[in-house]
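To: structure subgroup
Subject: Chain for Friday's discussion

All,

I'm putting the inputs and outputs inline so they're searchable in the archive.
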Amino acid sequence: MESYHCKRHGLLLLLVLCYAWVIIAQGRVSPTTLSTTKRFHFNVEWTMVTRLCSTKPLLTVNGEYPGPTIQVQEGDEVEIIVTNRVSLNTTIHWHGVKQVRTGWADGPAYITQCPIQSNKSYTYKFRVIKQRGTLWWHAHLSWQRASVHGAFIIHPRSPYPFSIPIAVEIPIILGEWWNGDVLAIEEGTIKYGEGPNVSDAYTINGLPGPLYPCSAKDTFMQGVERGKNYMLRIINAALNDELFFAIANHTLTVVEIDAAYVKAFTTRAIMIAPGQTTTVLFTADQASESKSFAMAATPYVTAIVPFDGSTTVGFINYEKKKAQNTPIPYNHTGNFSLSFLPPMHDTPFNTWFSNKLRSLGSSDYPCKVPKRVDKQVFLTISLNLQDCPLNQICKGFLGKRFSASINNQSFVRPAVSILESHYHHLHNVELSSYFPEKPPHPYNYTGAILQDANMNPEFGNKLLVVPYGTRLEFVLQDTSFINVENHPIHIHGHNFFIVGSGFGNFDPEKDPAGFNLVDPPERNTVAVPSGGWAVIWFKANNPGVWFMHCHLEVHTTWGLAMAFIVENGPKPSQSILPPPKDYPPC
């Protein structure tokens, strides 16, 4: 009898599974509803790392630089235990993951959580919902992300929307290296209001390449087979630099940005801002006598401040046998050209590249840009000069302190996370819901500014509060305080659509006529043009507290940031979930 019941139970289970797959095949249930739980463990620890002729302790995850790659599937539940094994506080942000109703797992310190203290652990739990492609993760406290970062890859459950067969998918993480202590450099920007020392090198997957001292052995190499197609998942993890990237003698096909598919187009190079990801394809199609080709990254420069003007170089090597992603000994002879890269000040190329980006907009991957907005917010993005306070030493321009602001509000993190205060209705005298929705004093934002002009910001953490489901328009306007500059603005918890951009001052009477409401690019980080503007539209349908900030780390340190609250909706499914039991205390 027991055997009969077991067989009967097994047959019923088989029938249920078969029926489920029939439903999926008929399109009545999305494959993304099928999920598994992927678990990872991160140990934040010091590791001795040698680059550019010297060795230093480097903050890492699991002793790796860059950190481990997380690979999950669309729809998966994800659990990542982060154990802090250093004396510093830390947090981890899963950059671009929307964190639908799970803002507790977003990661920015004092915005959605208090830091993970020394010898403590916190488990980030979330689900990747209707997202697929290349994202990344990084520390989100002070400048720890200089070395604490890695790729976060969401594999789709459906085939790619392009028919090209891919031989190998390769993460390419572009970063910066300092010979000195990055956290000490950050401290100088806070204590004295000074500009930071520029990095000593750029890196490809943590390796600077042969143009730097003692670095020929620290060169990224990728083997390829002639005739095969390759996918590069490119991530700009640099702290303070936008970068051009290209491969000599090879054409790149852009297919995805910030984990959102785009209409494919070919280009000789890309521009990628800090925080952004770009997925490209290339074919190993060079002649049989060709063996090695340089891939390189160099800065895109729009500011007049000092910058690292060097170039990191790696190589793709054509191999007769099956290509292996393993280091290959390399002796640099200096006989290759970098002319395949755009010039460092090539704004026309950057503008052309940005204008080519369009959402795929297919039936399987529709472009869900709102057709109208409920609320318009005009945000000026500024670098400021603060008068030097009494009895302090200031090392910024003209003996003042550098600062930064949005609508003249320079953001200061509170002592308790904003999400915690919001969720528990805590009375926090530091917080206010009166963030200005337009500049307090309109002016010619990109015109000439006199050096003796008052450029002091107001310090605090005023919040923008919007009801659930509000269709928002943010006009992001660069300003010429100190100098104009290309600013990569990242929004947590939401993707948005870049419906328009241009140079000079945004004209609310004329510029909306040129908005793209058909297939605008969908991103989580927008590079606001130097001396120009960008307009983004999105639906605020993720309840919680969300950070918006410049991804040039020094600008965030100076205060170029804000936070906004999306209130709970009327349904239980439109409310933020309760905090986890191991939520870090302040």
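Points worth raising on Friday:
The chain has five helices and 32 strands.
Residues 2-25 form the longest helix (24 residues).

D.
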